[in-house]
Design goal:
By secondary structure, the chain is of the alpha+beta class. It has a single domain, classed as archaeoglobus fulgidus dsm 4304 fold, CATH 3.30.2170. Helices cover about 25% and strands about 30% of the residues. It has five helices and nine strands. A hairpin with an 8-residue loop joins strand 8 and strand 9. Helix 1 packs across helix 3 and helix 2 crosses helix 3. The longest helix has 14 residues. The chain is globular.
Length: about 220
C-alpha cells in the first residue's frame, strides 16, 4: 500500500480534497466486522517537530471478547511539517508500513482521530480508509471543528457533531458521567454503525480498547531502530 506524498502544504490540501471526493459514509458495512484494528502513532519528541516516529496496529476479535489476534509496529521519519488539518500526511506512511506487516487483514480500522469531522471532510480515518480500501472511522478525545449540544449523562448517550450546518459525527458518552468521545465515520461505514462498534470497544474505559492498546504498543517502540 502506498500514499501520495506532498511536497507543500498547498499540494497536501489538493490531495486531501481529492481523497474527500472518494469518501463514502452513507451506509453501514455490508457484513458485520469481526477483526477490528486500532492504529496509533507516537512521536520521538514534540509532535510539531520533524523527527522519528513509531506506528502500531493491534487487531482485536469482536467475536472473542476483544482478544488480540495480531499486532505490528514500525518506525519512520516524519518529514511533513505540522499543520492542523493535515496531520494524516505525517502519520499515514508509517501506518501503511505496519498494516502491510499484519498476518490478519482487518475488517475495520479505528483511528485515534477524525473521519469526516474535519474541515475538508477528510481526517486520518477517511484518508487511511480511502488509501487502503478498508472501512475506517475515528474516535477522538476532543472535538476539532464541530460543535454539539448537551450529551445525555448515561453510557450510550450522544449528540450530533455539527460543522457548517452539516452533521459530521457524534459526541458519544462511553462511560456514565465521564466526558464524551467524538466519533466520526471515515470511509465505507456510517455513523450509526461506528457508534455501535465504539460502544462494543469500550466495556471498561472511556477510550476504545483498540486505541488504548495501539497507543501502548507504539509508545514502547524504540524510535532509533
Amino acid at each position: 500500500m502506498t500514499a501520495a506524498t506532498p511536497c507543500t502544504e498547498r499540494e497536501a490540501v489538493e490531495i486531501q480534497r481529492e481523497l474527500a471526493r472518494r469518501v463514502r459514509v452513507d451506509q453501514p458495512m455490508a457484513d458485520p466486522p469481526r477483526f477490528v484494528a486500532g492504529v496509533d502513532v507516537a512521536y520521538e519528541s514534540d509532535s510539531s517537530a520533524a523527527g522519528r516516529l513509531a506506528g502500531a496496529v493491534v487487531v482485536l476479535d469482536l467475536a472473542d471478547n476483544l482478544s488480540v489476534v495480531a499486532s505490528a509496529t514500525a518506525t519512520g521519519v516524519c518529514d511533513f511539517p505540522y499543520v492542523p488539518g493535515l496531520l494524516a500526511f505525517r502519520e499515514v506512511p508509517v501506518l501503511l508500513t505496519v498494516l502491510d506487516q499484519l498476518t490478519v487483514r482487518p475488517d475495520l480500522l479505528v483511528c485515534d482521530g477524525y473521519g469526516v469531522a474535519h474541515p475538508r471532510r477528510c481526517g486520518l480515518a477517511s484518508h487511511l480508509g480511502v488509501v487502503t480500501g478498508i472501512p475506517a472511522f475515528g474516535v477522538a478525545k476532543t472535538a476539532f471543528v464541530s460543535t454539539h449540544g448537551e450529551v445525555p449523562p448515561e453510557r450510550g448517550g450522544w449528540a450530533d457533531l455539527v460543522d457548517g450546518g452539516e452533521v459530521v459525527g457524534r459526541a458519544l458518552r462511553t462511560r456514565t458521567g465521564v466526558k464524551p468521545v467524538y466519533v466520526s465515520a471515515g470511509h465505507l461505514i456510517d455513523i450509526a454503525q461506528a457508534t455501535g462498534i465504539t460502544l462494543r470497544l469500550t466495556p471498561h474505559y472511556r477510550l476504545p480498547e483498540t486505541t488504548r492498546l495501539a497507543d501502548r504498543a507504539c509508545r514502547e517502540v524504540p524510535r532509533h531502530r
